[in-house]
Design a protein that fits this description.
The complex is a heterodimer of chains A (204) and B (788). Chain A has 2 domains: 53 residues, no CATH class; 125 residues, Cytochrome Bc1 Complex, Chain D, domain 2 (Orthogonal Bundle), CATH 1.10.760. Helix content of chain A is 48%, strand content 2%. Chain A has a two-stranded antiparallel sheet. The C terminus of chain A is likely disordered. By secondary structure, chain B is an all-alpha fold. Among the domains of chain B are: 46 residues, no CATH class; 178 residues, Cytochrome Bc1 Complex, Chain D, domain 2. Helix content of chain B is 65%, strand content 3%. Chain B contains 34 helices and 6 strands. In chain B, the strands form 3 sheets. In chain B, strands 1-4 form a two-stranded antiparallel sheet. A two-stranded antiparallel ribbon of chain B has the order 2-3. In chain B, a hairpin with a 5-residue loop joins strand 2 and strand 3. Chain B is globular and about 85 Å long. The C terminus of chain B is likely disordered. Classes of the chains: A mainly alpha (204), B mainly alpha (788). At the A-B interface, helix 1 and helix 2 of A face helix 2, helix 7, helix 8, helix 9 and helix 10 of B.
Chain lengths: 204, 788
């Protein structure tokens, strides 16, 4: 098989069809072996060693980056509900907020926001309003009559915003703790009157 | 094995059934292309839906795809396989009865499809839409084909199997496996059933089937036909026997793994997506092996290119095969798929394959075969030349216009403005930009169809001028002198292949250490393989021996095509039991903290009926239900789709094409009145839309008496309906319909609560309301009670 002459006919003939036994072209072999090496390498990089992000992780980063860019644009227009909500979508900001919360807020509101001296931040009920700017105002100016300190001067505007961003992520987590106080935050009305299904298979 | 003395005997080939299949190819080819022209017209001019339920695009597009694949290429394949196999084996087809059962059974399947699809009877899985009684008929016919073929193989008078026959064996075996598994279903009535697979599993099984229908229905048998008819027509030896061996085995082994490339960036687990992609990339060289062996066989016959239309058709066919099999791996690369998937690029790709490769192979074969079957000359070579040029112009115009519109759609959908938001927020903008290309596509399709009509006339005149031929030859049997089955199974190539497969599995499913061991193992195998070259002493190589043992060959083919499917599908089917646990963790910090349980709610009775209407009308041919994890998709549609949201979806309806927008997050996006107006006249709410109108949904009533029966079947598939829900299905459905029509009544619209439109609206409003929180933990409930 090794000594090989081009265009040498095999001795089999099928209904008049003859066959050569020519060597495989080198460029074709290169594609064959190259694609196999690529396939093994791709698997090792993406799965065995997880060096490169898979789609969901890539998506999360894409979204965070977009939020950061948008926040940079919006911060020129001053503080809004939207800009605070955007901060809450950026893990790095939320993490700094969590650390600040763990230092300054945990004493009254407990480790998961379930409330101790201060109210439960997770139950959807708010005494002074639950919109991002409402929460920001309470953290900055405090509510002296209820024992909530004004943190604006101590923490400064940037850190206050980060704490608020973290508190926004606690919203609706419903951690059992202090009983609800205040009024429920008006749930955003569903955009359509999609009919509630009668019976036990309803989709709520 | 006993050595037998060769005996001389006479063999008369059965060419009557070949003639029948050839005529069927000519007729169904024209029909399939005609329906293609009609659906292309509908995409350009919505009026061509004719306002009738049974001529709407959603029902005719499956008719077109099935007619071209199973009626046109199917009959062509059977004609080519039966003609060449008899001659390559020097044996008459084993059973005339089976041949004719095969022929008439297949035509019955086609007629059945042509009747049921326009009636809206469909399983809702692409290229597998046939309802279950027709599926059974397909299986019976395929078994008749298989028995007839392998029986002929057993009675052959040629010791070794030629490469064409290898490809035929792989076709018969693999299509049987694919078709049966993908069509496992539980009937609810004579014409309706639910796939036994749901959601992600159904998607994986469907595209394992769908992709390999391309591989083993449109590729392997046609390659076999190429290996017979091309050297015959060119009167040249095949370029390389060893290339045949290498590309045959690598092709059939690798192809079967590549299905998940249809599901990149979907809710399919990442590991399965990656397998689909890397095996598609590895498929490039094996596919090009076939193209090379075809093109290089024509060396020394290039002069015939000027004079012989048959050779012209073959050259363009093989060139299109090479182009499509380069484009396929390219489109399987994830970042390319991100751009091209759901767009017209894919439509261009499949037509390059179906019209360029399959169609031109069929035309070349027919122009060569028909004069021989009727012992005459082709009536007009000049008309065949004209056909060639018109068809080439048509397919090029078709493919190029679809490339342009496809890539522009992909760019439209993903374009973001300077602020990072959608540049073209309305989906219709991308469609309107494609309109000119849709018209170019129609012209291309018309040209291709016109060329086919020229062929019909030319061959008709040829047949009328000829008379049926009978071919009789004198053959000698051969001595059965090879080693037995088990000796062949212990051959070095088998052992090497098994070792490579085993090491690959270690590489796939183990950590860093296992991967290192597997890679080292590959190195050892490579060295051992290199050292063993030239050590083979026997006169006949192992492959030469196995070509003489059809059972051993067939068993190895079966093993080769089963590995990929088993590795990809079994883990997902076994994982079914884990789904509820995953649901409990679904996508939220809430569940992680354990206060809420997330449950995917089963469809209500009316939603079940609405979903069946969605399937019946073929909505999935233009609308996907799969939001991919890209910012531009979640901005347009909403949160990206998760696997757990589909556990009650049977059949899955992820779709593969977005002529219209994705619908997975459609629920709650628009008011009921919007859906009502949109279904009656899509252009009233979406100016410029090419969607058919569905006014008949307003008058047709849902048979709510059948709903409970459907829910019982769904319960068998794992949907947790209780007896009370099933017993009250009809009343519950009427109540839900009542809420919708009451809402519509406030806008001055009257609709019956059990109308099909109400059911469809119920389903559309339900779409994409993923796992939902139910039953807050008792502590939280208690706290709320205190608050009140």
């Amino acid at each position: 098989m090794n000594e090989h002459k081009p265009d040498e006919l095999r001795d089999h003939v099928y209904d008049g069809i003859e066959e050569y036994d020519n060597k495989l072209p080198n460029w074709w072999l290169f594609i064959l072996y190259g694609s196999i090496v690529f396939a093994v390498g791709y698997w090792l990089v993406f799965h065995t060693f997880s060096i490169v992000d898979l789609p969901s992780a890539r998506y999360d980063k894409e979204m965070v980056k977009a939020s950061e860019e948008q926040l940079a644009r919006m911060s020129k227009q001053g503080l809004t509900d939207e800009s605070l909500a955007l901060m809450a979508a950026i893990p790095a900001q939320v993490e700094e907020g969590r650390q600040l919360y763990a230092t300054y807020c945990v004493v009254c509101h407990a480790d998961r926001g379930q409330g101790l001296v201060g109210p439960n931040l997770t139950d959807g009920f708010w005494i002074h309003g639950g919109r991002p700017l409402d929460i920001h105002r309470v953290v900055t100016d405090g509510v002296l009559s209820k024992g909530m300190a004004a943190w604006g001067r101590q923490l400064g505007p940037t850190r206050v915003q980060k704490v608020v961003a973290y508190v926004l992520t606690l919203k609706g987590t419903e951690v059992p703790g202090k009983a609800p106080e205040g009024v429920p935050e008006a749930a955003a009305a569903p955009p359509t009157a999609a009919p509630a299904t009668a019976g036990a298979t309803g989709n709520g | 094995m006993q050595a037998t003395t060769p005996v001389t005997k006479r063999v008369v080939y059965d060419d009557e059934v070949v003639r029948a299949f050839s005529l069927a190819t000519i007729i169904w080819g024209a029909v399939g292309l005609l329906v293609g022209v009609l659906v292309a017209t509908q995409l350009s001019f919505w009026q061509a839906n004719l306002g009738l339920s049974w001529t709407s695009y959603g029902r005719l597009r499956p008719l077109h795809t099935n007619a071209v694949i199973f009626a046109f290429v199917g009959n062509m394949m059977f004609a080519g396989v039966y003609y060449s196999t008899q001659r390559l084996l020097k044996a008459r087809l084993a059973s005339d009865l089976l041949s004719w059962i095969h022929f008439w059974g297949w035509q019955a399947v086609i007629v059945g499809a042509a009747i049921t699809y326009p009636l809206g009877l469909s399983q809702g899985k692409e290229y597998a839409e046939l309802i279950w009684p027709l599926d059974l008929l397909v299986v019976l016919v395929w078994v008749a084909f298989g028995v007839n073929f392998f029986w002929t193989l057993a009675r052959r008078n040629e010791r070794n199997l030629y490469v064409a026959v290898w490809f035929y064996i792989s076709t018969i075996i693999t299509i049987a496996v694919l078709y049966i598994v993908n069509n496992l279903q539980l009937p609810t009535s004579l014409t309706h059933s639910y796939s036994i697979f749901t959601g992600v599993q159904d998607a994986l099984v469907q595209w394992w089937y769908g992709h390999n229908a391309v591989a083993f229905f449109l590729t392997t048998p046609i390659l076999g036909i190429m290996y017979y008819f091309l050297p015959k027509a060119a009167a040249r030896p095949v370029y390389s026997y060893r290339l045949s061996i290498v590309h045959f085995w690598s092709l059939i082994f690798i192809y079967i793994w590549a299905g998940p490339h249809h599901l990149l960036y979907t809710a399919l687990p990442d590991w399965a997506q990656t397998m689909g992609m890397i095996f598609s990339v590895m498929l490039w060289a094996p596919s090009w092996g076939g193209m090379l062996n075809g093109l290089l066989t024509l060396r020394g016959a290039w002069d015939k290119l000027r004079t012989d239309p048959v050779i012209k058709f073959y050259i363009v066919a093989v060139t299109f095969y090479g182009m499509s099999t380069f484009e396929g791996p390219l489109l399987s690369i994830k970042s390319v798929s991100a751009l091209g998937h759901y767009t017209d690029w894919i439509i261009g790709h499949v037509h390059g394959g179906a019209l360029g490769w399959n169609g031109f192979m069929a035309f070349g074969m027919l122009y060569w075969l028909v004069p021989r079957l009727w012992s005459t000359q082709l009536k007009s070579v000049r008309l065949a030349e004209l056909h060639f040029w018109i068809a080439t112009f048509g397919i090029l115009l078709y493919v190029v216009s679809m490339w342009i519109s496809g890539v522009s759609q992909g760019l439209f959908w993903r374009a973001l403005d300077a602020e990072g938001f959608l540049k073209y927020p309305d989906f219709i903008e991308g469609l309107l930009a494609s309109r000119f290309m849709y018209q170019m596509r129609l012209i291309g399709g018309l040209a291709y169809f016109a060329g086919a009509l020229l062929m019909v006339g030319n061959l008709w005149a040829t047949i009328r001028g000829g008379r049926k031929s009978t071919v009789e030859i004198e053959v000698q049997g051969y001595a059965h002198d090879g080693p037995g089955f088990w000796a062949l199974m212990r051959g070095a190539p088998v052992l090497y292949s098994l070792a490579v497969i085993a090491l690959s599995l270690v590489l796939f499913f183990s950590g860093a250490l296992g991967s290192a061991i597997a890679l080292a193992g590959f190195g050892v195998l490579a060295i051992a393989g290199a050292l063993s070259i030239g050590m083979e002493k026997s006169r006949r190589s192992w492959h030469d021996l196995i070509e003489g043992h059809s059972l051993a060959f067939t068993v190895l083919v079966l093993v080769a095509i089963l590995v990929g499917g088993l590795v990809e599908i079994v883990p997902l089917v076994v994982a079914k039991k884990d789904v509820p646990a995953q649901v409990a963790h679904a996508d939220s910090v809430w569940a992680a903290k354990g206060e809420y349980v997330f449950v995917q709610m089963p469809y209500s009775p009316l939603e079940v009926e609405g979903r069946d209407i969605y399937v019946r009308e073929g909505c999935y041919v233009c609308h996907s239900q799969m939001v991919r994890p890209f910012r531009h998709e979640t901005l347009r549609y909403g949160e990206y789709s998760r696997a757990t949201e589909f556990i009650y979806d049977t059949p899955f309806q992820w779709g593969s094409k977005r002529t219209g927008p994705d619908l997975h997050r459609e629920g709650g996006k628009y008011a009921n009145i919007w859906h009502y107006l949109h279904m009656i006249d899509p252009r009233s709410t979406s100016p410029g839309s090419n969607m058919p109108s569905y006014p008949h949904l307003k008058t047709h009533r849902v048979d709510l008496g059948a709903t409970a029966g459907k829910m019982r079947v769904l319960r068998k598939l794992g949907v947790p309906y209780d007896e009370a829900q099933i017993a009250g299905a009809s009343a519950t459905a009427r109540d839900q319909g009542g809420l919708i029509v009451a809402d519509l009544a406030t806008q001055g619209v009257t609709l019956a609560p059990d109308s099909e439109l109400a059911a469809l609206i119920a389903y559309l409003q339900r779409l994409g309301r993923g796992p939902q929180p139910v039953a807050p933990a008792p502590a939280a409930v208690a706290a709320r009670e205190v608050a009140r």
